[in-house]
Amino acid sequence: MTRSMVTDEMRSIVGKVMRETVSHPISLADIRKWVMAVYYPDPPPRQFWDEAFAATLPQGGIVAPEDFNPFAWMTAQPTPLDPPISQTAFSEAELGVDPPAYKAMLLTDIKTRHNGQAMRPGDVIRSTHKITDYFEREGRMGHMLYTTLSHELTNQDGAWIRTTDSVLVRY
Length: 171
Fold this sequence. Notes:
Blueprint: H1 8-12, E1 17-23, H2 28-39, H3 51-55, E2 75-77, E3 105-114, E4 126-139, E5 142-154, E6 160-170
Antiparallel strand pairs: 1-2, 1-4, 3-6, 4-5, 5-6
């Protein structure tokens, strides 16, 4: 039996916020730029750029598409003068815990959950990253540690918008 790569210190940080980012208020221009880029070379759906048309729809105005990233441009916090925080790399060291030794890390799965809460012009979005699970197994490459990193978005009222879970394997 292989010894576990997960230490008591690692278990103690499960669910704790590793990093947090806050957006500037979302503008109509942000949403319009996003959909222009995403739908290019085709025109974006009218509901994302025509205010009069969007007002006749159930959402009552322009809302961002579910895949909208309010952090695609500058963030309010951290500011451009703060030390940079990687939005892709992670380590338990961000919470003061030594990560396990490993040779390689691979992304194995990404799942996004939405609740239908739309991002609207004027919303300020908070982004948090947490380790939410560890599990281990044996594989062709030897003992492997799977880590679920959850990225959650909420608005200024604390309403949950979406969570993206990324499962990474280290061996």
